[in-house]
């Protein structure tokens, strides 16, 4: 029978059961468990994609327990009700071949929690490896002063860009484009030039730009003399044959080339353009490729993080080694940071053949990964048990709560609740600083309530990678007031 807690001991032979989807991840974890606990682990993969769809009746027909197994660990989804687990284990013990010779366990729902379930600490996921180069474009760069351009280069570098692309002005060539290239190089970044103007390209390459965007039938004849890598594109976006002709011509002349099939915006052939990337990769399995993802992030009314992750997932699976992105429009202003984290997350997920879930929540910004609601009646009980007059603020899906000794106010409208507080017996002691603090915290609670975020008083809301931590203002104010009260010989407590 299952015991209260799993305590691995040296020499145990543990059989871990899962579905097909989690097999690569579980095999990796099994190896870590063996090293950490000096046990032997085998992985049993049931003929089902997702372990959550297993039932005890189905599993007992499919389960094959290896010889010398001492313990079998089933995924937590096999029985979510703790009170029924003993009967489920008893059923499997009686009906599975060799089931009465092993100890049975129902483990966590997520195999990534096995380290903690084994009595240890969770293994940190190292999101350091990546395979996608981020090319950050500065649009209309020649319109910027050198000081502003240098500042933009440093900002993009610090956000995670690997290369700076100098976006030129299509209406007029920049005579001092070499100065812009030198700024990029001075900031420690490789430079690319984005122009079809041949003399402008030549000046940029002579100054040190080592990648040219873009080349097609109109200018590929000149690329033979530039002595640098170029990005080949179709003559028109949907003409993949013209892309192949340009690539073949450049390669025949010894030009290093990467191909971009041109990502089209939604409404202009978006899905067809994705198919072109896949088709070209199938035809050319070894050539370097690039995808300009700004056509989607800049031209779609949606926060960019999710769009960037999906596009980089396509690039990771198609082995598209570089992306060109911009962060001009406000909803895409953190695109480079998002791409930098997404490429690391996706390299790990694809390498482990596991969904990118519960690995990192840095890109979960609008809502929170998980909420921790207060139990029913807990706030009323809190109001009757606490003795001090400090104010505690809570938020759930529908209400903001203000709780203190003998007081529990709640409302969807923070203004209405604050008005009720002023009309209560506590209202006369409200000073301006205290009112400002409560108003600030209730504004955060309102945002949390509206978006479905976890609110914790005196702590910053969780905005993923964009979170800016806050000082503990309530604690500091309370400590200062109490210190001052003690100097005066007063025992009164701050109503905070």
Automatic annotation (TrEMBL):
Membrane-spanning parts: none
All residue ranges annotated as the Pterin-binding domain in the record: 116-347
Pfam families linked to this entry: DUF6513 (PF20123)
GO BP term, example: pteridine-containing compound metabolic process
Entries under InterPro entries matching the protein: Dihydropteroate_synth-like_sf, DUF6513, Pterin-binding_dom
Region of interest called Disordered, as start-end residue ranges on this chain: 476-496
Name of the protein in its database record: Pterin binding enzyme
Naturally occurring in which organism (per UniProt): Crateriforma conspicua
Source taxonomy: Bacteria, Pseudomonadati, Planctomycetota, Planctomycetia, Planctomycetales
